[in-house]
Amino acid sequence: MSNVLSHSLLTSIPFFYSFSIYNTLDCFYMQMVINEMKQKAIYPGTFDPVTNGHIDIITRASTIFPELIVAVASNKNKRPYLSWESRISLLEESVGHLTGVRVVGFDNLLIDFVLEQNAGIILRGLRAVSDFEYEFQLAGMNRKLSKKVETLFLTPAEHLMYISSTLVREIAALNGDISQFVPPNVVRELKKRQNERSL
């Protein structure tokens, strides 16, 4: 639980490196975070493809929240590398063993999906400080759209912070070894895609 950072807290206190936040917050803010953790959470993303960084966040979040929905965005306008169905299937195979975790696709506004699912938390991953400005802006916008929903940030394990779906796709496109960055089923799927493209 020491890697969680709440957007609602950031409006009241300085930005802390999330690994040490619980050493910094007073009892009032600590209780706010604990109360938020009792709610259903949504972890949205494109997951094109899902990486070990994503899996790390999902695995740890499953021990924090009573119910976690991994929400796979269709992103039709961005022409994703893998189909929506493939991304959902790969995630289901990768996290299906985790208690309280469901994988669901969505193609509407994120905040609307969160409210439809009766969730109170949007969970976002932060790999580096460079992610923070965009994520903070996004969290603020979602807060404006619905005050019923809070955004929490979770950082992946330190040895996974450099992994991104974009880099994985680029390595795979050049027939590089991606086995240390993604689950085995994703390795097989990307190899299959590369073979199909080379025909």
From TrEMBL:
Any one Gene Ontology BP term: coenzyme A biosynthetic process
Highest taxon listed in the record's lineage: Bacteria
Enzyme Commission number(s) from the entry: 2.7.7.3
Cofactor(s) needed by this chain: Mg(2+)
InterPro entries: Cyt_trans-like, PPAT, Rossmann-like_a/b/a_fold
Subcellular location per the Swiss-Prot or TrEMBL entry: Cytoplasm
Gene3D superfamilies: HUPs (3.40.50.620)
Site (Transition state stabilizer) residue list: H54
One cellular-component annotation, GO: cytoplasm
Residues annotated for substrate binding in this entry: T46, K78, L110, R124
Pathway recorded for this protein: Cofactor biosynthesis; coenzyme A biosynthesis; CoA from (R)-pantothenate: step 4/5
Record domain Cytidyltransferase-like: where: 42-170
Reaction catalysed by this enzyme: (R)-4'-phosphopantetheine + ATP + H(+) = 3'-dephospho-CoA + diphosphate
Keyword tags: ATP-binding, Coenzyme A biosynthesis, Cytoplasm, Magnesium, Nucleotide-binding, Nucleotidyltransferase, Transferase
One Pfam family hit: CTP_transf_like
GO terms, molecular function: ATP binding; pantetheine-phosphate adenylyltransferase activity
NCBIfam families: coaD_prev_kdtB (TIGR01510), cyt_tran_rel (TIGR00125)
Subunit relationships: Homohexamer.
Similarity comment text for this entry: Belongs to the bacterial CoaD family.
Job description of the protein: Reversibly transfers an adenylyl group from ATP to 4'-phosphopantetheine, yielding dephospho-CoA (dPCoA) and pyrophosphate.
Name of the featured protein: Phosphopantetheine adenylyltransferase
Species of the source: Legionella pneumophila
Name of the coding gene: coaD
